[in-house]
Write a structure and sequence with these properties.
The complex is a heterodimer of chains A (281) and B (350). Chain A has 281 residues and is an alpha/beta fold. In chain A, 40% of the residues lie in helices and 12% in strands. The chains are: A alpha/beta (281), B alpha/beta (350). The A-B interface holds A 57-60, 64, 66, 106-108, 115-120, 122-135, 137-138, 140, 156-157, 160-161, 163-164, 167-168 and B 63, 84-85, 87, 89-90, 92, 94-108, 110, 125-126, 128-130, 133-136.
Chain lengths: 281, 350
């Protein structure tokens, strides 16, 4: 892989700025998980995925990405805009009336890049499996990606899907779990322990990889390795350790910035830590 | 029939009476009911199975998913002939609905199959977000709807599914009345773009509609034209309405019977035209009185043409174990209940 790590990191900085500004702009939304996953989104859309920003719902011949934990919509919207799916100026409409950038992603407003509504948790893995099966029926050899939160794994539907994919050898699927260890009411350990995630997914029959989601080189290596392992009869899952709030010191290491917007002063502090690399919207 | 002219007590204007008399006599000598006969009874779920197989033959984009009820849903023929397009999901309905939504991305036309209870209430949020709100071309096909599921009892007899599904924006809701209509409906929804809920049942019921019918989504079917009362029925209750119409004919009542197979979008024009003529209406459905066809009809009438209406439906209760016939009788969902409701509503229109 010939990735320009510095360039990708630079884009991720701008995405983080966008996230904080968007959430501040409407005084609502979920900055914590969005910041933590900025590197993953940039890695996907600027390096890994074969995709077309002119956007076609069926995405024949393209890699597809589904976001299951829809509340981290700010990072999704910023990445899509920066990748050319729509004008970055539209980011300023996030969560406001008459916007295509709804609080949680939806196809309902026809925003390019969104293929399914998400927000009610636990549904994205099933959708991704369906899309992966459609690719097989269409003899389309591209890959389907899906991101889930770790708290989201408390939903039962995830485990229905987890059972289905290995049984049916859905091996054109690369799932990722954002393991930040936090959810609204506290750490996942405190709220409802996820136990040994690696052992669980292995027991279900998945090919399991682990990576650091806030280190661009390691992340790209894991995504590259996942791609190499696809097509071998097993679905693949990446346990991606991230830091909630990554990039903004006062938002890191706590569940408290899961769904809280910064005030003016906090915004200024945050932006001081995030270089403007591509020009603010 | 005895017509009692009693002029001893007070004088009567004979002109309107004469008009009534003429109308009565003409009613007595005419036949109100179009004759419906049947030679065979079959379950509507088999109509679905046959329609799915046909749809699969016509279009290779049609795929089917089933949550461990292939035999009950009569999906065997599709599975046998198109194994690569058939997905056994196991007892995991939420995953099935999500997968169906995903399969549409890439152009597939997925039909999901399980009991009505597990097709709706169990997976409501999955349908709401991944199918309806996302506007995915998924066909949710639901068997064993209502009381006629029988002996399994109330855990499996959903009577709220029409209400649940019609409340979802963009969802089409179809409840056909016999084998032929269910087969035609199944083929028709494969050709329609958008989410659909197709409801059918378990028991063998008379086949009385045309095997070669063209199924038009959203278009009411006139079963019998009449002038005294409109009976608007859906699903298994259409045959009961025909039986009721025959008894009403013997009583000198000319019932108009309409089959509403598509509850949403509702054929408002057909309903208003009929009720405008008859002045009273009985709705009949194998569903809770709250939230079903009756409520949809009432909403149209209250806005455009307030009219006396009686509901033949389950009176806000759960079902129980029993044979389908026993249950339909006990819960007031048979021809006799329709006849009684007609008498009541005709009293109210006076």
């Amino acid at each position: 892989m010939n990735a320009d790590i510095t360039k990708l990191e630079s884009i991720a900085k701008q995405v983080r700025r966008d996230i904080v500004r968007m959430v501040h702009g409407c005084q609502s939304g979920h900055p914590g998980g969005s910041l933590g996953c900025a590197d993953y989104f940039v890695a996907l859309y600027f390096q890994v995925l074969k995709h077309d920003p002119s956007f076609n719902m069926d995405g024949i011949g393209e890699d597809l990405f589904f976001l299951s934990n829809g509340h981290i919509s700010p990072v999704f919207y910023s990445t899509l805009a920066r990748a050319g799916y729509f004008d970055v100026k539209e980011l300023s409409t996030f969560r406001k009336i008459d916007s295509r950038l709804q609080g949680h992603p939806t196809t309902h407003e026809h925003l390019p890049g969104i293929r399914i509504a998400s927000g009610s948790l636990g549904q994205g893995l099933s959708v991704a499996i369906g899309a992966a099966q459609a690719k097989k029926l269409n003899n389309d050899d591209r890959t389907v990606y899906v991101l889930m939160g770790d708290g989201e794994l408390q939903e039962g539907q995830i485990w229905e899907a987890a059972m289905y994919a290995p049984h049916n050898k859905v091996d054109n699927l690369i799932a990722t779990i954002d393991v930040n260890g936090q959810q609204i009411d506290g750490s996942t350990e405190q709220v409802l322990s996820l136990g040994n995630l690696e052992a669980k997914w292995l027991a279900f029959g998945w090919d399991v990889l682990k990576t650091n989601g806030n280190n661009m080189s390691e992340l790209l290596e894991a995504l590259d390795e996942a791609k190499r392992r696809s097509g071998r009869g097993k679905p693949i899952i990446i346990l991606m350790r991230t830091e909630m709030g990554n990039g903004v010191d006062f938002m890191m290491g706590s569940h408290k910035w899961h769904g809280v917007a910064p005030n003016d002063e906090q915004l200024a502090t945050a932006l001081d830590q995030l270089e403007e690399t591509l020009g603010d919207y | 029939m005895i017509i009692n002219f009693d002029l001893k007590f007070e004088p009567i204007d004979l002109r309107p009476l004469n008009a009534d008399l003429i109308s009565h006599i003409s009613h007595l000598i005419s036949e109100y009911m179009k004759k419906y006969t049947y030679t065979e009874k079959k379950d509507t779920r088999s109509g679905f199975g046959a329609g799915l197989h046909e749809a699969g033959k016509k279009n290779d984009q049609v795929v089917a998913l089933c949550a461990d009820l292939i035999g009950s849903l009569k999906m065997d023929a599709f599975k046998k002939d198109f194994p690569e397009r058939f997905f056994q999901t196991g007892i995991a309905e939420a995953n099935m609905i999500g997968m169906a939504a995903g399969l549409t991305i890439g152009g597939k036309i997925p039909f999901t199959g399980t009991f009505a209870n597990f097709s709706t209430g169990r997976v409501y949020d999955q349908i709401r977000q991944s199918v309806a709100y996302s506007n995915k071309n998924v066909k949710i096909c639901a068997s064993h709807a209502g009381l006629t599921l029988g002996e399994d009892g109330a855990t499996h007899q959903i009577l709220e599914d029409i209400g649940l599904m019609k409340m979802l924006p963009g969802m089409t809701v179809i409840n056909p009345c016999d084998f032929n209509q269910t087969k035609a409906a199944t083929i028709a929804i494969a050709e329609y773009e958008g989410p659909v809920y197709l409801r059918f049942g378990r028991p063998a019921v008379p086949i009385f509609t045309d095997p070669d019918q063209k199924f038009e989504i959203g278009k009411a079917w006139m079963v019998n034209e009449g002038s005294d009362v409109s009976i608007i029925a859906t699903g298994h209750m259409v045959w009961e309405a025909i039986l009721a119409g025959e008894r009403l004919e013997e009583m000198g009542i000319d019932a108009e019977i309409i089959n509403i197979h598509t509850i949403k979008p509702l054929d408002e024009e057909a309903i208003l035209k009929s009720v405008g003529k008859t002045g009273c209406v009985v709705t009949a459905e194998e569903h809770n009185r709250l939230g079903g066809l009756g409520d949809s009809v009432a909403q149209v009438l209250s806005k455009h043409l307030p009219t006396p209406q009686e509901y033949v439906a389950v009176n806000d209760s759960f079902g129980e174990s029993g044979t389908p016939a026993q249950l339909m009788k006990k819960y007031g969902l048979d021809a006799e209940s329709i006849v009684n409701a007609v008498k009541k509503v005709m009293e109210r229109k006076k």
